[in-house]
Amino acid sequence: MGKRRIWSFQKKEFVLRIIYIDIDSCRPDHLSCYGYPRPTSPVIDSLAQQGVLFRNCHTSDAPCLPSRAALFSGRLGINNGVTCHDGPASQLRYAGRGHFHDPTRPMWMRYLQKAGWETVCFSGFGQRHLAWWFFSGFTQNFGNQLPGESETADEVTEKVLHWLQQNGTTDNWFMHVNYWDVHHPYEAPERYFQRIRDLPCLPYPNAESIAYDVQHYYGPRTARDWWYESGWQNAQEGRRRAMPRGNPDTYENYKGFVDGHDAGIAYIDEKLGTILEALEKLGVRDETAIIVGSDHGESIGELGMYFEHGNACEGTTHVPLIIYWPGITDQAERSVESRAIDTLMYQLDLAPTMLDLLGMELPTNWDGISLASQVRGSVGPTRDHLVLGCGIYSFQRAVRTERYRLIRTIHSGLYPYEPLYLFDMQNDPYQTQNIATEQPEIVAQLDHLLLAWLWQYTTGSEGVRDPFQEQLRAGITPDIYCPRWRIEERLQALGRDDQLADLRAHRDKKPALRPW
């Protein structure tokens, strides 16, 4: 073990290394430390035991591109311009003039870089989404050495280990490591499937709820229409396992999908263990902060969607966040209760939290707040609600309070979505009962919060244009991954005339620029 260094928050002198493990599409309730019955994440669990675990962390904007734009820029999607995967709402609003970055709202990797930190990226994400801003502020970028499509945890970890051998004992570096394997098409090696296949998973969805979804939902990535297209290549023999070829329209078929999701977590967890072992051998394990997070979760049955991130339900926006910070979170006297933090938070709160822990001055125009006090085990600022969005497959915004989740559908895409949902998250965590008509007062309260939020960001001298409205004015709908004609042909060919008529009725409804 390396000799522990002492950090002084008064002197603001630190020698530290930070690794951010970014697991794509990882639902927190599929990690053992968040209560999942399957042992998917023993390494992550051990970090949680020495760190802090945030129970109510949400990405402000889902899915992949909007989420990372928000996290990296420190700004909500309505501010940075990215709420979708294509069209005007996929273009980052550059914070600055000419060739100068705005120092009040920097990309936080660039902020670290200007403070003298080496910043290193192991991710093909920028190539995958043609998002070149993603690499802003990284001193070294190894993303171009990765396939940029579905690189495996082995391929990513190999490059990480090589870099650590060359540079791991130097001071003041930040590393971003992005793993893709929890995102479909679920191609983890077979041994990880064997580890979890026969073990129980969550009580929802179940055979009854899946049968209901088969009858009441249609559209891409639903129980009956998951495979709305063909052409995905089979997995390479001996290296990867192909996804189930059937739809998750029975519980048995669903199990094949959830096994793939969980096997991906187990695969990544083991590779994280390999990285921690390398740090141990280098003598810097107890001098390196480890942060584990995800860009978004997955809807697994919520609003009829399976193993995709195309609505503003809890499954999509809720993300894990675990922070292990040596010298702060690993104190032996730290109580178990202080290690699990329940406050509502945006994922983009991570950037000011991390800089605060480093003793750095925080940029003045980020949308995030520092939760460093909670990481240290004391009382800190809290939020009483969040406004969350999703911009592929459907356009939706949600208001999340401690108890309720209101969802407003701006454009339903190819789904039979209602304009309004209200869910009691304490009594209905999987969002199966829409209680909007029974609770008009709660709806009015949360609608007021949503309207006030929109007013705050879209009016006045600093007001911005709502990216969703820009998208709709450009005539761009959320069904970029599945043309409408494909689902219409499928419904017609299968004799599902009632659902075809319903889809066409939704098509003929012009979405309102304000959904209420």
UniProtKB/TrEMBL annotation:
Pfam families found in the cross-reference section: Sulfatase (PF00884)
Residue ranges constituting the Sulfatase N-terminal domain according to the UniProt record: 18-360
InterPro entries: Alkaline_phosphatase_core_sf, GAG_Ulvan_Degrading_Sulfatases, Sulfatase_N
Source organism superkingdom: Bacteria
Name of the protein described by the UniProt record: Sulfatase
Source species of the chain: Ktedonosporobacter rubrisoli
Lineage: Bacteria, Bacillati, Chloroflexota, Ktedonobacteria, Ktedonobacterales
